[in-house]
Amino acid sequence: MNISDVAKKTGLTSKAIRFYEEKGVVTPPSRSDNGYRHYAAHHIDELNLLRQARQVGFTLEECRELVTLFNDPARHSADVKARTLQKADEIAAHIEELHAMRARLLELAEACPGDDSAECPIINHLAGCCHHADGKRG
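== HTH-type transcriptional regulator CueR ==
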């Protein structure tokens, strides 16, 4: 298969496939004498794994580890499960951070009159200062 065939089968762009190859995340394909890449079914499996792993939040380095595990017949499913649960915990922590950020933004918006005046508690808070009526920073 050529790269355009692989792109169609995996839902990745040719550019993304070349990027993952360049970064050493997937097994490099064989090349013909003229330099064209030739892909096997194994490459499709690796790239599908990679695409799906990226969609659920695994980093590029974590994807490299997953592809390595995929290619290791002596792997243990416990290792894959541990990585997956760790990623789920990281995502849960990130969600908590995002909720806290949203709550803070809503607090800031609530404190702002949102009118035509130049005085804005949001800007003042983010800048770490407050503006006085005489226009001087305090």
